[in-house]
């Protein structure tokens, strides 16, 4: 949460205009065009989120504290001022202001004068498709000193407080628009295939690094298979924001732990090793299909991980389905003709995907 504190001390002699309607005591904010034009946002709504939604001001008049509100209430009064004095371009990001605190209190001071103190806390939230997200809070204050006989100091203090909050938020948006992920406008995805400079206990898929028997441990027990491998697909994400674009790098991991490579004594034949390598190839194919689907999507900025997770789970299901189909049709490698067909099918798919040349 970003916090701003703004404190102004004002000595008031004469403001030269009426600050509130003397009949109903409602304070009417004077029109005053703000000195900046927002380039990154527009205000789409004002919400009164104060714990106490009473009048915004307690004004000292003839030694009596008089509760006085903005005309129409806090939210309506501020909304009218913003709509009339702040440029609104609906092609920009919609922002909601929630009023957490907005209270002006006057008290008697020495020498027949009156002190005024405005405290305020505005929360700025970005309105997205399905929710809102908090951007920053502006917390500020204004103090003034006025003669007791002058009663029109409240309006300028309230108006200047609102102006300072909007100005601070505008500066924050200008600073954050290109680098804050909450404000990003699009997502750009790049895939890399995970690799390690020094190979450890896990083999990451590479056409230049096929399986070899030295990767395998002895398969003991009552397994009916000559060899076994257990492959998997995973990924990790890295991201940064540049000029309002989320640059998302997905590090795809098609891997095989060496602890999950087992072979029976006497089972180390080229034919058996090829069968196990094809299991690894099938996992790579499912991983490449995952890549293709993600790169074809228009990922939403406010939930890009959602579609990625959906497609990742689909890739795991596809890998499981293909592995079962492969073992079923080749009878775990015992059907040499079926194995040859799968060898050809897998090589063609890897070439079509650009994995093999």
What do you see in this structure?
- The protein is an alpha/beta fold.
- It has 2 domains: 7-180, 3-Layer(aba) Sandwich (Rossmann fold), CATH 3.40.50; 184-352, no CATH class.
- Helix content is 29%, strand content 31%.
- It has helices spanning 74-85, 154-176, 270-296, 305-330, 336-352; strands at 7-11, 41-48, 57-61, 64-68, 93-109, 113-127, 132-147, 186-193, 202-204, 217-218, 227-228, 232-242, 245-257, 262-263.
- Strands 1, 2, 3, 4, 5, 6 and 7 form a 7-stranded mixed β-sheet that branches. Strands 8, 9, 12 and 13 form a 4-stranded mixed β-sheet that branches.
- α3 (270-296) runs antiparallel to α4 and α3 (270-296) packs parallel to α5.
- The longest helix has 27 residues, at 270-296.
- The two termini are 52 Å apart.
Indicate the topology.
Blueprint: E1 7-11, E2 41-48, E3 57-61, E4 64-68, H1 74-85, E5 93-109, E6 113-127, E7 132-147, H2 154-176, E8 186-193, E9 202-204, E10 217-218, E11 227-228, E12 232-242, E13 245-257, E14 262-263, H3 270-296, H4 305-330, H5 336-352
Parallel strand pairs: 1-7, 2-5, 3-5, 8-13, 10-14
Antiparallel strand pairs: 3-4, 5-6, 6-7, 9-13, 11-14, 12-13
Helix pairs in contact: 3-4, 3-5
Structure summarized in a few sentences:
With 357 residues, this protein is an alpha/beta fold.
Rg on CA atoms, Å: 34 Å
Main sheet characteristics: 7 strands, mixed
- CATH topology assignment of the largest domain: Rossmann fold
CATH architecture label name of the largest domain: 3-Layer(aba) Sandwich
Mean pLDDT: 92
Find the count of extended strands (DSSP E, 2+ residues). Answer: 14
Please report the number of helical segments: 5
Question: What shape does the CA trace take?
Answer: rod-shaped
Unreliable sequence segments:
1-23
């Amino acid at each position: 949460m970003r916090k701003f504190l703004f404190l102004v001390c004002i000595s008031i002699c004469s403001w030269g205009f009426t600050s509130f309607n003397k009949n109903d005591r409602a304070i009417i904010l004077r029109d005053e065009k703000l000195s900046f034009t927002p380039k990154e946002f527009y205000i789409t709504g004002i919400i009164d989120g104060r714990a106490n939604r009473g009048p915004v001001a307690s004004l000292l008049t003839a030694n009596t504290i008089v509760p006085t509100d903005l005309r129409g209430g806090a939210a309506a009064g501020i909304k009218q001022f913003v709509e009339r004095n702040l440029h609104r371009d609906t092609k920009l990001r919609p922002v909601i202001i929630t009023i957490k605190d907005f209270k002006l209190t006057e008290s008697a001071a020495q020498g027949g004068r009156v002190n005024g103190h405005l405290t305020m806390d505005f929360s700025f939230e970005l309105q997205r498709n399905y929710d809102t997200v908090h951007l920053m809070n502006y917390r500020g204050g204004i103090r003034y000193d006025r003669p007791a006989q002058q009663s029109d100091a409240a309006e300028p203090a309230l108006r200047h407080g609102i102006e300072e909050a909007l100005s601070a938020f505008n500066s924050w948006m200008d600073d954050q628009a290109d680098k804050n992920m909450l404000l990003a406008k699009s997502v750009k995805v790049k895939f890399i295939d995970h690799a390690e400079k020094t190979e450890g206990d896990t083999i990451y898929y590479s056409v230049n690094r096929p399986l070899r028997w030295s990767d395998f441990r002895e398969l003991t027990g009552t397994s009916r298979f000559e060899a076994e491998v257990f492959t998997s697909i995973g990924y990790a994400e890295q991201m940064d924001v540049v000029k309002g674009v989320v640059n998302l790098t997905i590090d795809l991991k098609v891997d095989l732990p060496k602890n999950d490579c087992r072979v029976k004594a006497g089972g180390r034949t080229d034919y058996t090793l090829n069968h196990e390598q094809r299991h690894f190839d099938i996992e790579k194919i499912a991983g490449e299909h995952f890549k293709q689907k993600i790169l074809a999507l228009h990922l939403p900025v406010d939930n890009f991980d959602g579609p990625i997770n959906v497609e990742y789970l689909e890739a795991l299901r596809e890998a499981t389905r293909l592995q079962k189909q492969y073992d079923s049709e080749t009878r775990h490698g015992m059907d040499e003709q079926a194995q040859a067909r799968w060898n050809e099918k897998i090589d063609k798919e890897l070439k079509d995907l650009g994995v093999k040349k």
